[in-house]
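hey
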């Protein structure tokens, strides 16, 4: 194990899987000790070790799932807010990197060598951290159905393909939702197509980036819609930013989602199942290096 103030966790299998040697060479040139993931959930272990060792600069090289695993490891060692995190985008979906204004691998490595730092909110769902989003319903089922082969062929479009396929047989989810909104409790109960909880992502009202520094989740609850091809079309319109009837939009500091049956959630791409899940927002906990296009106060 290499110990030092600068360490990198590199997933050599993320994305197209042809970046590992190139990324490692770039990071070593910037003084980073590079540790490659070699097994499922290895990034969790490496994140935990970085926290225990008191690493001050931690670069994560992979997609959103790799970032999530490293954050889980840091949380395990009670060090989530300690190191400054840099994201080097190497995954199929690099939503966080795009939100932070990190253009590509070279830009990510450059920022890891001294880019500006912002203090970013971290969501916690069932005791596990997430930074991009936590979703339940049709999108989570679609991500579960997207095979690795489909992802390699179509990239992020794989989730659109499987979303259409899943829509044909999706029955919706029965939920009860309770949220803390401006100090008051709001509730929602019924059948939903999906529940979208964004920390870095805003799902309606033009979509795009949510405010990651205000201590609030951007939450969209989409009512159950008719089965068939119209479901995929309707969800696509709603999720991609067209505010329509049948969507409840709130900004909440905390919420609980429960149902009579276990619900599958996608937490930054990691699939988990709960009958009851509480999500809390830990305001400005994580230090992240950002690019010049990052918007600290998106409209």
């Amino acid at each position: 194990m290499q110990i030092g103030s600068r360490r990198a966790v590199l997933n050599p299998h993320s994305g197209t899987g042809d970046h590992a040697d190139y990324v490692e060479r770039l990071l070593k040139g910037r003084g980073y000790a590079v540790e490659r993931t070699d097994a499922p959930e290895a990034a969790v272990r490496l994140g935990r070790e970085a926290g225990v060792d008191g690493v001050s600069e931690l670069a994560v090289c992979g997609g959103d799932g790799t970032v999530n695993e490293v954050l889980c490891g840091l949380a395990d060692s009670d060090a989530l807010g300690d190191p400054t995190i840099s994201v080097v985008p190497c995954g199929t979906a690099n939503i966080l990197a795009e939100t932070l204004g990190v253009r590509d691998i070279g830009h990510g490595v450059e920022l890891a060598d001294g880019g500006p730092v912002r203090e970013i909110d971290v969501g916690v769902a069932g005791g596990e951290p997430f930074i991009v989003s936590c979703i339940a319903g049709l999108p989570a089922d679609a991500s579960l159905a997207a095979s690795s082969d489909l992802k390699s062929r179509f990239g992020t479009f794989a989730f659109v393909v499987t979303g259409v396929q899943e829509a044909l047989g999706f029955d919706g989810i029965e939920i009860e939702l309770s949220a803390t909104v401006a100090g008051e409790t709001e509730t929602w109960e019924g059948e939903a197509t999906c529940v979208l909880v964004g920390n870095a992502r805003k799902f309606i009202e033009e979509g795009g980036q949510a405010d990651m520094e205000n201590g609030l989740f951007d939450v969209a609850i989409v009512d159950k819609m008719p089965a068939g091809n119209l479901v995929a079309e309707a969800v696509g319109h709603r999720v991609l930013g067209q505010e329509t009837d049948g969507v409840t939009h709130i900004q909440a500091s905390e919420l609980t989602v429960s149902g009579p049956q276990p619900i599958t959630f996608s937490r930054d791409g990691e699939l988990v199942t709960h009958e009851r899940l509480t999500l809390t927002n830990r305001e400005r906990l994580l230090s992240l290096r950002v690019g010049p296009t990052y918007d600290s106060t998106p409209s």
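The radius of gyration is 19 Å. The mean pLDDT is 84.
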